[in-house]
Design brief:
Six copies of one chain form a homohexamer.
Chain A: E1 24-29, H1 44-52, E2 58-59, E3 64-65, E4 71-76, H2 84-100, E5 104-109, H3 115-125, E6 130-134, H4 154-162, E7 167-172, H5 177-186, E8 189-192, H6 196-202, E9 210-216, H7 238-250, E10 254-261, H8 272-288
Parallel strand pairs in A: 1-4, 1-5, 5-10, 6-7, 6-9, 7-8, 9-10
Antiparallel strand pairs in A: 2-3
Chain lengths: 290, 290, 290, 290, 290, 290
């Protein structure tokens, strides 16, 4: 008596209703508690699923069809409102469970701080992992106005966890002077302003590595993704981001998980942000889940 | 591994996950194929559920809490795009099944034509039924530009099915001359412009009767419900509609099912239409499901 | 080879394509040059026509059908951008011509200053005329920051022209102290805050009189007409304005012409302002053109 | 070399640039950290000031002009992002200072929790004070999901501070069962759904009392104030709120301070919420500051 | 007594009021009956005309002025609501008539299926014709969910009519696997993702040919044209589309007619979609009508 | 008792509260009286300041921090509504004063005509000055419909003032034929369509020169700046404009002042226009004020 949930956008199109049979798991993390400027990414996962209704199931970029990938949409983790510490713990426990079950975790944010507990869970299973990070912001702060759990900090934490030499940032065009200095001195990789070209240059050196990919939707120019909390002019096109996703798919890295964060639908009455985001998720499923 | 669906607005708040245990069933009918002016009510049910997240579970109008009512949210019926005849058949079969299982059907539209198959299913079980209808439009046309399956026709069809003397319309302020003539001559009841006052006068005469209630959100003034396809100035306030819902709850009629239709979120960037609609659904659950 | 202009909202629905045969003439005045706060009423006439597509042609308020009234839609007068003095002259000449041809002029604004040249043309033909004025603002200033041609002045000018004792204002809730003092001392009639009740009391005293009616859409509360330049909280409902239009229709006054001004569509993404305005125009055609 | 700040809406119109000379002080509290549903009231004070540009300086409700009241606009208190406890302390200290200087405090929110530190400061100076509270929500919770500093709690805290018998709530239409029970049993006054009528009945009993007034903009129906975080259908009109403000002005109570909270501009593209709010502030200045 | 229709955007700027004297004819096709996702392109033609008011009449791209081209704007064909088959017949008859009168047909959509009857009429007159097609979607389906009259099918139908070897598609980035296979195997030309570069390579081979050009506005990235039903990320810029239009103008092909479809204004509150579309129409008039 | 004005966006972030100590002065010019299409840039300066709240204070483009530049934000010049001539005089007097005090003037518009009085003041102090102009429109008209004070004329006036050979326009893609002819014949420099590449070619020839830079936000494509009065498709990206600003900073020209005009927030609900504009202002401060 319950109707197919893909109908009317409750789950991502073509998802397999069985967790057990699936290879990848899509999960939402509707938290924006630590956002300093324009909040609203808590509604991102739901609107990305809804927009997936308008997608074709076949990709001419990958020459692949969604029926060739087996994935389950778990819905949103019920993160406790206003409690960042507990929310992050829940995400970490959940990803631990997914990894124990051999799943490929594909997270939908929510704010970027949510990548931090994912990193920790991934690292326990893949201690040799590298991180590819696409973003407008460096996210390399140690804290934000005294608060270590802030959406400006996850990549700095990642550097501490897996070593800065294993972190590769692309498209960065905003941050404090200290963040750019840290990037220069720490041994991490940072490509400013651009994504596809420098990524293609780096990928061969990552061949054979286990790589987690985290994408902040604001790596796109506001023209392509106005629906985000801290829009930053001077970004890349959605065409370039599709090219980057494709480059990873065609490379020899082993993608072990991924997330797409910071979609905040309230600031985009045209809905193009979630429409683009749902296409990126399709490409990630088709190109990265093997 | 699947998360609670009420979280992030996938089902109406406080719904019981078990169909079997439930007394009432909320179901969506995302169809707007026959709409002549501004389409978009296909997205109504999803946004009403989403808006239910902002509701209190207790009602000071009814002095009752949603945990006192047992209801299941079935999601949306997967109506075939563009095929009105088949869509109506599917709704009719579904309501037949609900009634066979002893459930109280609570439908979310979608366009008003969807009430027609519901009427047919209800009538098979309750051949003595009456209909209370709140709407800006008479919906008494025999056809619309040659098409008998139109959103302008369901109440005329209802008159044919259960007898015009069993149909009670309120708040009507738009229609063709022929529709108003039919209302006058056929023996049905029609209150123009107003809802709460005339309804309270009529209710005693319906005491003990089995009554189905259909509400078109455009009975409200566009100030209170701009998110609808054929907004019509001069309507009632949401306060008056809450009063009407309460009057039925306090009366001696036996409500056997209900629907709320024509919420079209795209025309209301303030979201107040679905916010109001979700409150009306809460009141209907609390006041009418016994 | 040219298609019917009523189709897709180029002219008001059901207008007669022949100027000669028509009794009333709808004309647009797309000027907002003297507006001090939020400009945009220059687009009002076009959007009112467009919204007329969603109207029923029959009115249950008047029990009358648009085919019973013969009117022509002349389009918009090509007022020269930025030149208020010349624009007003063009309106005056045009209304002179309409009156010479025996037409009932029905103007769509544009800003309220446009009523001033209409008053002058009407007065030449009807030296005994009275004016009924519904508005949030008194519009009784002598000038606005030194400028006598301002949208805050037309009713003061009208008092000078036809005598304050022949001017009746309703719904006023904003103005300078001097305007309210003038209203009290000059002998004009001013009803503050309310429209329908005081209007009904006044109408019998105007029986047999020639009356021009000017309605500023902001007499409505912003809840009912957000699409206007100087929205003012505390206004009347669209229901009350419909009641007022009906009261005039049922009275013994002889309406000689009318206008509806200050619809500024850009501030109302819900489109309810022009939807309501087109309904008021329908009622004015049905009730006032005899 | 610095230009007049009232120009372009930086301060409320007609404010006196001198703190020392002023009788009343307008201050903003741009905090929305504890909001559970739709955040954004942090931008409320700035947009209310901006909208004041469109106001007339004279009020026909009060027959008074803003030049008859002497007030200073202090701007917004720089509340530390995300730190509710410290923010509340800052507000309390600030109001203490205002009272020490003999000023009438007029606060602009921001979320409703901000009224709590104001109550504490007021109570130190006026231990016999009463509170008049207009709101859609009871705000009588002891805590919200474990958190005592929540926007659902300020009136409960007020009851604890000054005694429930000195708290008068109006317009309440949403809350938990426990809040309505508390209202009934505690000895406080609560009028459900309505404001102006019950307020007028109560006011004589408050004659001569020192009264602080706190208004949550969501006491208005969403039709009149869509720009708020937790819009609740079934509210009052802006006309009724103007009537209530006027009734207090005409009564014999001694208003000692006031606030207007929960204006969240992002949800209202028509801007009518802040337009109405700025009018209420004008009326409060004219009617309550003596 | 009727005013110039170009004034206030009723016809495309600078159109000649005489059908007889004109070389090209602009006509609107306000139909979106077969759209599966977001309807609304029925309002496209009217808003493109309205936006033409903001255009310069001279083009620095073409170094030409609109007064050098003679065109008539016929308004919108009154297509019968909901009846796709009859609507297509009407379009076909109309284009037949235009061609019989020696006119260059320039159609404004509405949905892309409307190009199908145009193709048929063109083919009768120009049996050697080729088609240039710019679009995000392949539109090569044989049917859509059983329905052969769908907006996903016109290019497949065109291949059947004029031979796939005479069909040239550019910018395609969405479709079913079967559509891309058909493109590969049938002998038609398809350039994926890009438009200007491959078009310039192809144009010499079309020298001297009669060519009809159909442009779906969604060939643009949603950043440049958010106002369309099925926005698809990863598209081209408006700069590239202007370059493509210019390349055709400078080539030796003989353009025999053209259309621009799928502008759906409701999804673009910035109005940039119709602003861009009106500029493309100007360029097509200046560059292609000879 | 007055709070920091940078808080809540009243002044541009990090501005020095002392005029005397500052090197540069930001001033707003809220005038749009001569705009022919979509008015609203009068609100541009206020929203650019507000958006500056979301900026980082450090720029990775310039590798510089705002604390390294000393600037004062003077607020908006109180230009008299509707009086263009007097407004321009006030701007000229104000810039004269700034220059007399040795300040670097950084103006925020407001319409482009406002650059004309600035040019005059600059020229008195720097008779050898050159102008770099980035814009979609040539602005080379002698008058607009008879009016010499129009937003289409400032660059033509500049040519008359400082000699066409000292004027360099970039990104131009709209104008009358006469304007392009003038550009060709007068000796001025005009680069059509592009900005960064031709600018970099020209800059060496301007080495050592005193240069004033005027930027019309509509040089950007509407995808990047929809919030402007006369949006023109086919423009540059915000990335290219950042590159152009950087190229000037790295060149050997001596920037003596600058303005950024035509931001009209009402047409951009995503707010990306003012977000981008505030970033451009930051880069201009960091790169051009020496």
């Amino acid at each position: 008596m319950r109707f197919d949930e893909a109908y009317s956008g409750k789950v991502f199109i073509m998802s397999n209703p069985s967790y057990e049979e699936s290879k990848a798991v899509i999960y939402g993390m509707p938290m924006d508690w630590t956002v300093s400027f324009r909040p609203g990414s808590r509604f991102g996962p739901a609107r990305i699923r809804e927009a997936s209704l308008g997608l074709e199931e076949y990709s001419p970029y990958m020459d692949k069809h969604l029926e060739e990938v087996n994935y389950f949409d778990a819905g949103d983790i019920p993160l406790p409102f206003g409690n960042a510490a507990r929310s992050l713990d829940m995400v970490e426990e959940y990803v631990d469970k997914l990894l124990a079950d051999g799943k490929f975790p594909l997270g939908l944010g929510g704010e970027h701080l949510l990548s931090w507990p994912i990193f920790k869970a991934m690292y326990r299973k893949y201690p040799d992992m590298a991180i590819i990070h696409m973003d407008a912001h460096a996210d390399l702060r140690e804290q934000y106005e005294g608060e270590p759990l802030s959406h400006s900090t996850p990549i700095r934490k990642a550097c501490g966890l897996i070593g800065p030499e294993n972190v590769y940032s692309f498209g960065i065009r905003s941050g404090m002077r200290e963040e750019f200095q840290y990037a220069k001195e720490s041994g991490m990789h940072m490509s400013k302003f651009e994504v596809a070209r420098p990524l293609k240059e780096i990928l061969p050196s990552l061949a054979g590595r286990n790589v987690y990919v985290t994408i902040d939707i604001d790596v796109l120019d506001p023209a392509h993704a106005p629906g985000t909390g801290t829009a930053e002019a001077g970004g890349i096109t959605s065409k370039e981001l599709l090219e980057a996703i494709g480059a990873i798919a065609k490379s020899d890295v082993n993608v072990i998980g991924a997330d797409l964060v910071e979609v905040a639908p309230a600031y985009d009455p045209t809905e193009q942000t979630q429409i683009a985001a749902s296409k990126f998720i399709r490409e990630m499923l088709l190109g990265w889940v093997k």
